[in-house]
Amino acid sequence: MMFTAAVVLISFVSCISEQIRPPEHQSLQHLTFLEVLHVEQGLERGVEAKTDTTLRRMPSLANLVVQGPGMVLQALTSFAALPDALEDKYKDDSALGSGTFGVTFLATRKADNQKVAVKVFKVGKDWATPGNCRSAECRALIGSSASECLDTQRIHSADTLDSEASEHVVNCFYDGITGHTAASQPYYIEMSFAGRDDVDKWWGKKLKEHLVADADYVQHLKSVAKGVYLGLKFMAESKGTNKWVHMDLKPQNMVINEDTGQTVIVDMGTVVCQGPGCTSTPRGTTAIFRPPEVPHLSLFHPGVEWQSPVWSFDVHSAALSILGMATDGNSGLVMPDGTALHAVPVLPYMLTNEVQTRMANWRMVKEVVDCGREIGMPGTTQFLNGLLKCTNDNSVVLYKMLFDQRLQAIRKATGDKRKAAWASLVHCRTSKRFATALYPLPDLQATKVPKFFWTLIDDWMKTGFDEVLLKALSTTPDERPKPSEILEAQWFNADKPKVSGTSVEFTCPDYFTDSQAYYQICAGFVSAILLMLTACVCCCGTCSTCCCQIPAWKWASVWAGILVVATPFFAFFLMNPSIVIPCVFLLLMVPLGLAMICLQPVAERAGKGSAEKQKKVKLGIIGLSAVLALGCSLCVFSPTAAVALIPPDLTFGPIPVGGRMYLWAGLAASLNLGRPAVLYTVISGVSVMIRGSDARDVSTETGSTVELQARV
Length: 712
Fold this sequence. Notes:
elongated, disordered C terminus, disordered N terminus, alpha+beta, three-stranded antiparallel sheet, 21 helices
């Protein structure tokens, strides 16, 4: 079972509006890899598509982006040619790829014989037109596409001021949506032809070619990196009115133009601007390419905002993309639909699991619930929003700390140790311990290092680019260099490496700490067994007292002692994060519990033959045990109170949050053994008091003995 403390918090938001709640993404359980359909050659996959109307920006233009859960390629052979209404504008058209909402064609514009990409939108089996595009979903798609085209044109308003860099950002030449009212005129967008393969797919092909020289891979990677940073320079350091942030930069949103060999940034559906007329709106971005200062638990925070400086968000995403290309792409991530990804950065993937593992405990739940109370009164929207905010804030703090630890290991090392640290950061993808995560992530294959990596890292260290990359990966946005500063690095102008790099030994860290949730669940099962035995002891003990006239304290005190000893150990999982309180209860209750188990011998030794003294000793031990058991019981956090407002059938995507939380809370509630311990100490105390009234002293010449007789 996979749980995380954040489930409790997000469960509270069951009554929040759809604008607050995260969309029920099936793909969110896989780190929200937005299924991006680029201008691909051929129609390969045929999987039924699903839509997600909660996303603010709908499918992209340049690469037929379809963002949302399970939105994948769909083979549609009935749209093999451009609509007749567009034949007067284009010629030599051929279908490049098809998605749920449109088909992209490679065509030649008749006016100037320029090769362009034309995306024509569709509704079901027909082309989308003002006459048949009447549904809210279709209008949202068309409107979002028109808005994206406008944003792309605004970005390119500075083309003449930086023509070299502008070629690395896709352009929208014509908006065939806005102002078109003819009922039979299909909606379409004309864009610059970026290429057929995105960088991830293109890199996968290169890896399968088994290039003769490792230096060839280095040069290819360098070419991609230079093109990306040129595109970012054009956007983030624009000489126009506004600066631009892509927000979802990743290898799937970079396309290789086979005609020019250039890397082109595509998918402008998530761009935001800084400057006049710009508004800040959260964007649904791919979690593992997000910088550390924003939440990575995409199930709870599908949309994020960028932090200044304007270039910092994309610079970090580009650096992660470079690390993804440096991995062994042939054994990369395989999505549930069978799609192989070849340029996935391993580090954020593993750290996201680690964050979930560290948050999977009831102490974190208590901390965040208390934080939510400071924001709003329980039961109010402010309180629910506060829980969500505090969950994400805690996850960001943990993620930044873990990320910075890995970067520091590289900064402090030199020579071969530095190479080993880089190898560990880039390639380690397994751990001896397992992650306790709310949503399962696709399995990664065993750690493998491609041969070209050692040539690449030697080239980075020789030219100083590894230092530039460390700054780009910094957890502090202000420390990240501008794209133009990165392009000044010696590496981009260095000659092709002439000598292959030498490998070094490196060790992989255990990413995942010992999971408290795992131990809590195991302890919950053990405590549940103890509670069942408690019921059995109660029944059997009552029978023995009634039928065999055995004093109740003789069996109740033994079991009470066992529960008193066990109580602080199990309560540890539900107590205040401070270790002091559990230790105090542990030091006090263990000796008293042992005294309860051996109550008669302890009382005889302390009472020195006097029945009255023995009775007082017994009642003293029992009383102290009851008080401490009650105090320990009151000091623990109540999981059942936390999940009281959760509907049992509440689900987020494919995750049955309500059912899991009630199960986890039930197991956690059994950890509070203080209550049955108090019950048994009370039974023992009452029994001692009743039996003590019948005691009588018997004196002999050799000494005094105490004979306890039952009243007939």
